[in-house]
Amino acid sequence: MTKSGKLLIYAPVPLVQTKDGLHLEGQACNGLRLWAEHFDEVVCMNPVTTGPLPDGWIPIDQAGLDMDRIRLVPLPMAYRPDQFFRHFRACRDIIRTEIANADYRSFSIGGLAGDWGSVAAWQSHRAGLPFAIWTDRVESEVVRRTAASSDLWRRRLRARLEHRPMWWWEKFIIRRAALGLFHGKETFDTYAPYCKQPQLVHDIHINKADHITPDQVQTKSAAVAQGPLNIVYTGRASAMKGPQDWVGVLDRLNAQDVDFKATWLGDGPDLAEMKSLVDAAGLKEKVHLAGFVEDRDTVMQHLRAAHIFLFCHKTPESPRCLIEALVSAAPIVGYEGSFARDLIAEHQGGRLVPLNDVDALSDAVAALDKDRAALADLIVRAADDGAPFDDESVYEHRCEIIKTYL
């Protein structure tokens, strides 16, 4: 594999400083490893914070990275406007120096205050140096749709005030990028009209060994003929994931006497409300809210055992959990969206219903429960749709695009 040049990236995943050193989310560490397989040197700018470690963060010095060729540049966490303006000049100068010394530049963007990725993009443009923009969701639209769900009126007000200038700023930066790397069809369809060279890419951390085997697919599809329907979801319990709708679907299935067991793997601000909804619906015996599960093998085992991956995503994003479900032969059944539709376009390994239509989603799941032969076929189709996705392939694809256009 040929390496070439120095790559500068900005990633919004925060570094966490503790007395034991710097920590970074495990998948972000895997991303650094994969970048370094294609470039001589990788420089990664990240916001840095202190305090308790979030779930999934690991020590950088224990991540197995070649730190002789990977350099981290911590930038202040400055998502409040006052923090952003206080740190702006110093960070701008650091960013300018890194931009001037890089051969390739790719920045993740999203937000206004504290978005050092868009600052880096603007500084690259002013210096006349080509850069790529990467994003996996339409941040302004995510802010707009989730504004009403916050318990704090100040956050709701700020979201209402910010989403329009955020949309303008996103377009402003993307129009000046030499390359747009848009993860998933949802973001690609939104941003491609404003980009000189838009490219549809994926950003996943599933290796080939994580894929379900053909023998396992056949065993799974044959076993689905009997027993309770096994429903799974993996992700944060937050408003944009529609956890209330998810419980609502299960409530309706229970009312229709569908025999099922359901598991939600993931923590988040709405988990307590989910538990209350489950209790109120009398679903405690059928629904397990597992919280955060750190062990990757355990998560993949749940997905391989699932008959249906039930999702209720409400915002335009490209959630990796749908790909993880497909590589595990778990059909994706949920709300319509460009990303989900594109993932199953070839083999139809899922069922999609209109956004926010809990009744339609319940009916789709109930229909598959009644027609187990159709569900068995859907399991095989899901595995076929998931076959092309692994981290080595998608990172090689993205790196070759960067080398070609930058």
- Stretches where pLDDT is under 50 for at least 5 consecutive residues are none
Q: Give the % helix.
A: 40-55%
- Largest sheet, if any? 10 strands, mixed
What gyration radius follows from the Cα positions, in whole Å?
22 Å
Number of helices: 15
Structural class: alpha/beta
Name the assembly state: single chain
Shape: globular
CA distance, first residue to last residue: 19 Å
Question: What do you see in this structure?
Answer:
The protein contains 15 helices and 16 strands. β2 and β3 form a beta hairpin. The model has no long low-confidence stretch (mean pLDDT 92).
Overview features:
406 residues; 15 helices; 10-stranded mixed sheet; alpha/beta; globular
Short synopsis of the structure:
The protein is an alpha/beta fold and 406 residues long.
Task: Give the helix/strand layout.
Elements: E1 6-10, E2 15-18, E3 21-25, H1 26-36, E4 41-50, E5 57-59, E6 70-76, H2 81-101, E7 104-108, H3 116-126, E8 132-135, H4 139-146, H5 153-176, E9 179-183, H6 185-191, E10 198-201, H7 214-223, E11 229-234, H8 243-255, E12 260-265, H9 271-280, E13 287-291, H10 296-305, E14 308-311, H11 320-327, E15 332-335, H12 338-343, E16 350-353, H13 358-370, H14 372-386, H15 391-405
Parallel strand pairs: 1-4, 1-7, 2-4, 4-6, 7-8, 8-9, 9-10, 11-12, 11-14, 12-13, 14-15, 15-16
Antiparallel strand pairs: 2-3, 3-5
Helix pairs in contact: 2-3, 4-5, 7-14, 8-9, 8-13, 11-14
